[in-house]
Design a protein that fits this description.
Layout lengths: L1 H7 L2 H5 L16 H25 L11 H20 L7 H14 L8 H14 L6 H4 L16 H7 L13 H32 L5 H10 L15 H22 L18 E2 L8 E2 L4 H7 L4 H24 L12 H23 L1 H13 L12 H21 L4 H25 L12 H7 L7 H10 L16 H8 L5 H30 L12 H14 L8 H23 L8 H4 L4 H57 L11
Antiparallel strand pairs: 1-2
Helix pairs in contact: 3-5, 3-21, 4-5, 4-25, 5-20, 5-21, 6-8, 6-21, 6-22, 8-21, 9-16, 9-20, 9-21, 11-25, 12-25, 13-25, 14-17, 14-23, 15-16, 16-17, 19-22
Length: 676
Amino acid sequence: MMLSLLMKIKVVMARAQPSEDVSEQKWPVITVRAVVLGVATGVLLNTYTNYTGMVLVNSALVKSQLPMSVLLPFVGWIGVNLVLRFFWPRIALSSSELVLIYSMSWIVGTIPVAGWATYWGGIVSSPTYYASPENRWEEFLFDVMPWWVLPQVSEGSITTFYEGLPPGESIPWESWVGTLCWWFSLSIALVVAALCVSVIFQRQWEDAEKLTFPLVTFPVALTEGFDGKERIPAMFKDGIFWAGVLVVLLVYVYNIITYFAPNLPHIGIYDSVRIANKDVIIAEHFPPLRLRIMPPVIGLTYLCNLDILLSFWAFRLFAILKEGFINRVGYTVGYTGQQADAYEILLLESHGAFVFLALWSVWIARGHLRRVFQAAMEGCRSPKDDGLIPYRFALVGLVLSTIFVVGFVTYMGLSLPLAILQVALLYIAYFTIAKYTAASGFSYLFPVAVRGGRIIESLIGYSTFTRREVVGLGLVNSNMFFGNYRIPVWPSLPHHLKIFSSEVKRKRVVWTIFLAFSTCFFASMLYTIYLGYDNAAQNLGLGGFQGGNKNLYNRMVSIIVQADKTVFDPAKATVWVLGVLFAGLLTLLRNRVPWWPLHPMGLAFQNSIGSRTYAFSMFLTWSAKHMILRFGGIPLYNRVRPFFFGLVVGYVTGCALSSLVDYVWFPSTPHWTHGW
């Protein structure tokens, strides 16, 4: 039945996508006021999100590449500006100023709490505090630990961090200066690499591949009209938009009423707390099908091409069936003692497809890259022939930043060949997520195997690794190393350049990136350190301080003391290669067979946490968009678009309203507002 449905989808439906060319709009010069407000918003969202996540533990605002910590202040600024437009229009913000605040906030939105700060604070501080004869950390790890990237241990500095600062004592900031400087230098190198990669590929993605950039179209559409004569922009007069808002917001308003009247039944259609209740068990040993409805996912992926939407949920169904059948028959792959189970088999297959997406992206851009290298070697006659920064500078910056990252990783304990392999896998992960987030608008798109450490372990094994390499590899692939699978800066930069690369004073565009990141890095990390001393870090919520920090070092010891260490496994390598070949076959079919509706993205992300959680939401989006295009065409598609943007605004407003009610009436027993 599914195959017949796929066969009936017309190519015009599978790939139809109206033009969303943001770059055609004429943006005024970036203003100092907007930059200041963008930085201030980033600092506030980082400190607020750290506090709610680690102290109040009533929400998880950083769960995606475009987290709720960014959408909340953006919708807040929209509301503030509507008031200003009505009462004080002279001081109201322009459309470009609002979008700049959004973009700068997004650049730093994944730094706080579970995005990075919590794990960073917990992992760098754990070794000396939790070391004991039982866990044997000091015996096997301490002599090979890269102490230079960890806090300087002075008398009581780490003890008071975990147990709380005694009255009258001051925070020993000097113990943290070195580690902050080293991690900031690594972070800036990765930000430079992200900027250079985005500049090099931007015109290829915009002009040749016509990526849709849905996560840019949303804020531009929402702010459109703030520069006109009307006090209220057209979007906010549209009944279809408000219908989308109310579909979500009314559910939140009703549930807020149940806070005061617990006997009333709760409506859990958008809940993440009771997410296990949304699982449908197909059969024993089969992973569940999760019926999770997330309005921001539905609203933002409405702008995604139909073939990508179809592939996400179709391949997720295939993955459930594959994993279930492998579990039922007990099939494994690999040598005895290191066999890959169903989950690892799908991971290897997915990572092979993931790497293919990266290599294919470079291959189809070969003509553009040839022109980039030619422009870098010969120089450009006109700034229009260059990127946001000259291609010559972009290539040199990419090389120098990469050398620094490889050197950093080497000094953490990896041999040079292993460091090069690790950084290559890291770049593949970040590059692929940056591109395909811009292509799909699916903000829960996470890199397969994160930075690639799991793939190194699975394919190469640990038999030839020294203790120093085991520790270095563990730290590089931990969540303290430039975030976890929610990646700072890389996914947001192509969108930032999409909006502002035509800015007359291009240097301002570049400086907004580094100013926002630098300020918010220190704001988030310093506030995390402060919370540790003020509240006792062992009491702070989330995994960075509640198990994730200790589990990392325990696993290093387990690998080191393991008698039969894993070795290179040809069978596992074969599965990985098959993933590459399957993705290549899907790409060939997509390019050669007009009616073929599936995209290789679906295979690459078939078992990622984003697809596992939100495949049903993607199915709802695909179904709605397919029917709209089939019966109403492009005119109806454009007319209904405000409804889907309204879903996002309604969800964000509902979360904010619930948090406000908790702050006023239920400060000690807050209700969970947002998470998976």
